[in-house]
Amino acid sequence: MTSVQAAGRTVFFVSDGTGITAETLGTSVLAQFDSLKFRHRRLPFIDSPDKADEAKAVIEEQGRVDGKPPLVFSTLVNSTIGARIRLAKAVHLDLFATFVEPLERELGVKSNHTIGRFHNATDSEAYKNRIEAINFSLAHDDGQATSNLDQADVILIGVSRSGKTPTSLYLSMQYGLKVANYPLIPEDFERDAMPSAIRPHMEKLFGLTIDPIRLSDIRNERRPGSRYATLENCRYEVGAAETMMRREGVHWLSTTTKSIEEIATTILNTLALAR
Amino acid sequence: MTSVQAAGRTVFFVSDGTGITAETLGTSVLAQFDSLKFRHRRLPFIDSPDKADEAKAVIEEQGRVDGKPPLVFSTLVNSTIGARIRLAKAVHLDLFATFVEPLERELGVKSNHTIGRFHNATDSEAYKNRIEAINFSLAHDDGQATSNLDQADVILIGVSRSGKTPTSLYLSMQYGLKVANYPLIPEDFERDAMPSAIRPHMEKLFGLTIDPIRLSDIRNERRPGSRYATLENCRYEVGAAETMMRREGVHWLSTTTKSIEEIATTILNTLALAR
């Protein structure tokens, strides 16, 4: 924690844990100031007074180099450690002090001032489910395995390179869902029928589609100049897939301008509404 | 957005985007009150006054059913929409109002009050890198591909079932890093040498190890009663792997009690320090 870089303003994400919460919030907040550039520095696992003092020194030294006080987004459960960090000359945005204290009053209970609340995270049922979900999604990527599809929470379908794999992995990693994905291929369009392996699971299907121009770009990066990547073929596959999904009453969305997070959230929302 | 469930207190995560930031922060804050149970409800994509009014009605109806005002964590860039949501009888924890306004004063600039700031997220270089990183990590899972290891940002090593795959996918998904993973197997220990495919890339290696008792449990779930899963064999493999990593000067950590996020953060931190 000793290296220091020059120029601009620095934002620190300080936590007794991973700092992911502080960084997620801080990044969203700073996205509202997109005319400014910030240097991001993560200071995770600050879980002792000594580490707090070391972090304070790093923050102050950076402020001297920058000539501007750093921004410090922090999630520190222990109030002693929080107090030491706040001694640093900086703009402090303390997530827990800001929200936990008002909630203690509202809820009429004290919060648990424990450090390392994630420890033994691996013992929990939720953790096991998550690992199991990731393994399931990997094993059922791209139609690799058609066994155990009855255990799937969701089965994503769509043409090759429509975004099925990253979406499947994101849903299993973040939400512990078992997500299979199954490609729709020209043979399915010629037969004009959903692949037989997924027919028994129509209520679990969710379709991904994509603008043919973008699909052609993506496929050309992988297999340049192939027939598979031509705009003509992409138009045909996307059109046929959309026609089939529409006819079969499958919920679907276009991934063209959406981030993985937006796609995943839309799927969760649609399935919750549908059930 | 019309179904309502009974009893307990409800926490809403309301956003004009996915609601992931609101949910990440809200979940961390509420983890400080682990004696209480909350029902979580996500209201994403609230990006018009009509949807805001609909969300307000859902929140109020839930409050009536619960007999307690819901908690509402929100990230709403548009202040008109925020104001409509705040009319709901609830405990409002408004992340942007709380942090963006003080930052406008500190930074001396106005924030951009745009809705849908994530749109065309897929056009950005960062997005392409992320998808490429996920594909790389998938292709280089479990030593499947040994080509292009020079393009890897990190190569995770460790015995089978030490946590390499979920960690690789998490690092690529969340940080856009190209992460290969390579198993250390009994043949490597008999030869008493690192696998030849990864020897040219020693500076990229990071090792994962695990408590042999836990490893035996995990392996027994997959291959019950196998020699592979015996505590004796797990002790041998873990001991041999740790000896080899220590001798070769590879950074490593034990995944036994750590979440995927903690493992990933530790790796990022160690590599940043080492470089």
- What's the CATH class label of the largest domain in chain A? Alpha Beta
In spatial order, strands of the major sheet of chain A run 2-1-3-4
Q: Quickly count the domains of chain A.
A: 2
**Major protein interface:** A-B, 71 and 72 residues
Kindly estimate the percentage of residues of chain A that lie in beta strands according to DSSP.
5-15%
CATH architecture of the largest domain in chain A: 3-Layer(aba) Sandwich
Percent helix among the residues of chain A? 40-55%
Please sum up the structure shown.
The structure is a homodimer of 275-residue chains. With 275 residues, chain A is an alpha/beta fold.
Walk me through what this model shows.
Two copies of one chain form a homodimer. Chain A is of the alpha/beta class. Chain A has ten helices and eight strands. The first copy, chain A, has helices at 20-30, 49-66, 79-86, 95-107, 125-139, 164-175, 186-191, 212-222, 231-248, 260-274, and strands at 9-15, 38-43, 71-75, 91-94, 154-158, 179-183, 205-209, 251-254. In chain A, helix 8 packs across helix 9 (231-248). At the A-B interface, helix 1, helix 4, helix 5, helix 6 and helix 10 of A face helix 1, helix 4, helix 5, helix 6 and helix 10 of B.
Secondary structure: elements and pairs:
2 copies of one chain form a homodimer.
Chain A: E1 9-15, H1 20-30, E2 38-43, H2 49-66, E3 71-75, H3 79-86, E4 91-94, H4 95-107, H5 125-139, E5 154-158, H6 164-175, E6 179-183, H7 186-191, E7 205-209, H8 212-222, H9 231-248, E8 251-254, H10 260-274
Parallel strand pairs in A: 1-2, 1-3, 3-4, 5-6, 5-7, 7-8
Helix pairs in contact in A: 2-3, 5-6, 6-10, 8-9
